[in-house]
């Protein structure tokens, strides 16, 4: 059975999203096995009397988030409203953790 020409672009997009989902899962598995740092890291020595350390961003988590959004058919970068709602949820979870 052949795919109708009108459905072909939709099928191609679905295949691309499936491949992206598989890639995200493979990268997450590899990161867990390889103990890859997901977010931020501290470079330098702690504690210290001088500020010889700094907090640096590790872009792996942002890269995975972008791939995951592409796999869902969303734009790679989140909108400002999405970012604010995500930060609100994270802040609420952190607040609940501190209170409990």
Observed structural traits:
single chain, 100 residues, mainly alpha, two-stranded antiparallel ribbon, 2 strands, 59% helix, elongated
Map the helices and strands.
Blueprint: H1 8-34, E1 40-43, E2 54-57, H2 60-71, H3 80-99
Helix pairs in contact: 1-2
Question: Can you give me a brief rundown of this structure?
Answer:
The chain is mainly alpha-helical and 100 residues long. The chain has 3 helices and 2 strands. 59% of the residues lie in helices and 8% in strands.
Q: How much of the sequence is in beta strands? A: 5-15%
Shape, please? Answer: elongated
Average pLDDT metric? 82
Order of helices and strands: HEEHH
- CA-to-CA gap between the ends? 58 Å
User: How big is the Rg?
Assistant: 20 Å
Largest sheet: 2 strands, antiparallel
Structural class, by secondary structure, is mainly alpha
How many domains make up the 3D coordinates? 1
DSSP E strands, number: 2
Strand order of the largest sheet: 1-2
User: How many DSSP H or I helices?
Assistant: 3
**Percentage of residues in helical conformation:** 55-70%
Q: Give the uncertain stretches in residue-range form.
A: none
